[in-house]
Amino acid sequence: MFNFCDCDSPLDEPQDNYSWQSGLCDCHTDMSNAIMTALFPCVTFGRIAEVLDEGESPRCVVFCSLYLVMMPLLCSQWMISSCYRRKLRRRYQLLNKPCGDTITHMFCPCCTLCQEYRELKHKGLDPALGWKGIVTQKARQNGNRQTTAPPPDQSMTR
C-alpha cells in the first residue's frame, strides 16, 4: 500500500551522533503542543510524518487517520510512529536515547511525539505549518534576503 518509512533497512547508526535539543520529558517547554498531543496524538504524529516525508507521502490527514485507527488495535500505533522516530534520528544523526525508538513510543508515546515535534521546530521545520507552509516560509525568507541585497554596481558593467 504505502511505503511509510524505512523500518526494514539495517539499523546502522550514524558515525557522528548529536544530542536531542530537549529531553524526552521536557513537554512543559511547549505547552500548546503538549496539550494538543495529550488530547490528539494522531494530529501531532500526522504533522511530524508529513514533514519527515517532505510532502512526498499522503497528507497529514491520512497519517492522523492511520494513527487513530492503530491506537485501539492493541495500542499498535507505536509500530508506525517508531519508524518515524528512527527516520528523524537518522536524518539528523541524533542519539538513540533515552532508549530505543520502539520502547519510547510504546511506553511514552505522547512525550516521544512532543520531543520529535520540538526537535523539528528547533531545526526550523515547524510541523504546525505543514510541508507546503514550511516551503513557503523558506521561500519568503530567501526572497527577503535577495531583495535586501544591494543591486549590482552598474558602472562596472558599462
In whole angstroms, the N-to-C terminal distance is: 61 Å
> What is the structural class?
mainly alpha
- Radius of gyration (Å): 19 Å
List the secondary-structure elements in sequence, H or E.
HHHHHHHH
Structure explained in plain terms:
The protein is mainly α and 158 residues long. Helices cover 58% and strands 0% of the residues. The chain has helices spanning 31-39, 41-52, 60-70, 78-92, 101-107, 109-122, 130-148, 154-157.
Outline of this structure?
The protein is mainly α. Helix content is 58%, strand content 0%.
State the main characteristics.
8 helices; 0% strand; single chain; mainly alpha; globular
Task: Describe the protein's topology.
Layout: H1 31-39, H2 41-52, H3 60-70, H4 78-92, H5 101-107, H6 109-122, H7 130-148, H8 154-157
Helix pairs in contact: 1-2, 1-6, 2-3, 2-4, 2-6, 4-5, 4-6, 5-6
